[in-house]
């Protein structure tokens, strides 16, 4: 699909669009099965879906963590999803050399949060002509994203989005500040809320054998999602798995597939009430008393 056409469709999506899928490609069979079922749910509910999964999880707590099948095999699998279910694809890149081959398959190239300021990576992603979704770094204030977006635009690509995924709080936790969802609009592009990674607890889970992995607060995903759609985000990013307890990566922050439809129904209802509401204009002149009325 033409990137500008898809970008305009996402901007116009009501009440929001959805980027969703398993955190990482576990197998071709699993990814195709997940894509079929997630598309079935979103089609029923009338939501615009972009299917998400990663071919390589390069940013892992432990070097022993599962990373996925790698770029070559992973892109082949994502292309099969794209063809079989007529779905646009979003996946992430970690190095400039990945952008061109990923851009041949993916409709949206995602910049991981830890790399949101990497100029060469942003420019390489922009030059593919595809939509670029930049996750805000956990260490960044919202205005930083204006500069990241301008790096994409200065490379000749106007199709860019920004994504909130929480802010570092303490040592092993993240906090979601709803104000960021409003402040990031200063970048003048669609705003997406990552309602699953935002609930990670980095290195917060002890593993058998003495290692550590990211923990998470899956039970709070509905809370963060409700808040995000109430604020009026353009899109939601949500990792979904049929068996999150046994998922090889980020199980604690993947939403169970069996509960996806009911959650989306609730979020659509909330968004339809709040989406499109103009921000209240507040009169800051001093209140003079009853004689004003």
Reading the helices and strands in chain order gives HEHEHEHEHEHEEEHEEEHEEH
Largest sheet: 8 strands, parallel, barrel
Q: Averaging pLDDT over every residue, what do you get?
A: 89
Proportion in helices: 25-40%
- Care to count the β-strands? 13
Straight-line distance between termini: 56 Å
Sum up the structure in keywords.
9 helices, two-stranded antiparallel ribbon, 293 residues, alpha/beta
Set down the secondary structure blueprint.
Blueprint (H helix, E strand, L loop, with lengths): L2 H10 L4 E5 L6 H18 L2 E5 L18 H15 L3 E4 L3 H10 L2 E4 L7 H9 L3 E5 L8 H11 L5 E5 L2 E3 L3 E3 L2 H6 L7 E4 L5 E7 L5 E5 L4 H11 L3 E7 L13 E2 L3 H15 L19
Parallel strand pairs: 1-2, 1-12, 2-3, 3-4, 4-5, 5-6, 6-9, 9-12, 12-13
Antiparallel strand pairs: 7-8, 10-11
What can you see in these coordinates?
The chain is an alpha/beta fold. It is 36% helix and 20% strand. It has nine helices and 13 strands. The strands form three sheets. Strands 1-2-3-4-5-6-9-12 form an eight-stranded parallel β-barrel, surrounded by seven helices. A hairpin with a 3-residue loop joins strand 7 (167-169) and strand 8 (173-175). Helix 2 (28-45) crosses helix 9 and helix 4 (96-105) runs parallel beside helix 5 (119-127). The chain is globular. The model has no long low-confidence stretch (mean pLDDT 89).
